[in-house]
Amino acid sequence: MLRHMRVWRYLDEVARSGSVRQAAERLNVTPSAVLRRIQDVEEDVGEALFERTSSGMMLTVAGELFIDWIRRQAADLDMVKSQIEEVAGVRRGSIRLACSQAAAASFIPHAVALFQKTHADVVFSISTASHEQAIRMLVQYEVDLALIFGPPLRSEVRAYMSIGQRVVAVMRQDHPLAEQPALRLRHCMEYPLALLDRGFSGRRLLDSIMAGISTPPNIVLEANSFEPLAAYVRHSDAVTFQVQIGIDDIAAGHGLAVRALLDEDKAFAPLVLLHLKGRSLPVAARRFADTISRGLDELRMEPLDG
Description:
There is one protein chain. This protein has helices at about 1-15, 20-25, 30-45, 60-85, 100-105, 105-115, 130-140, 185-190, 200-210, 225-235, 245-255, 285-300, and strands at about 50-55, 55-60, 90-100, 120-130, 145-150, 155-170, 180-185, 195, 220-225, 240-245, 255-260, 270-275. It is of the alpha/beta class. Strands 3, 4, 5, 6, 7, 10, 11 and 12 form an 8-stranded mixed sheet that branches. The protein is elongated and about 70 Å long. The model has no long low-confidence stretch (mean pLDDT about 90). Belongs to the LysR transcriptional regulatory family.
């Protein structure tokens, strides 16, 4: 089994990169070695797994089925290894997580540090991602868990934990709007807006609300990261927005004010911890999911500071 997994990894790398040469570079082998492995497996399966095109190596229908099976086998093997280590009393392993930028700023690093107090040998890989990117990473077995805001309904994934989260307005501390304890979105739209790009759920939520307001938004800056938005509004009259989780730490670091949007705007959606349907998580990942869930549960009763 383990020997076969090493061979199958060659195919998985080609499928991810679409190139024999790039896969060989990642595997530190020659392209001819990768091609031989592909040919051997195709002979065993009795079907072509890749279509050789001018743009690269494309999976056939049979190839998509086989690669999906490989990834499920690899995930199951990780889970079994984790269980064996648990039986032996060894608390180690690796956890791969995709999360929203808001969660990555404070909440997730705190959860990792807390978890490693009792699981010091567990290593983490954290990727910030939009909801679509995070779900793709789950489906392709690139991450074990995903913590994202407002994910779309997908049959391939299941919710481990969910809590409601507001979108809040963020501005410099002496901004005229900072004098108010809470705001309507239309008040924010009287000023320039700095927004995350449309790949993020929070942006799509804001767009849907702004579509019902007669004043057109004056969007002066878009970015795929909150950091440049926070730095920009600190030195301008612009207003930006972020998900509630972790915003106080971000605002304190940039010297910014945070104000809730009033309930009438319905600027809220669930923050959801997701895992892949039908996949048995490794012990370490399952325990970390429990740590995240407890942390999220503690946030339910925390008020949003003005």
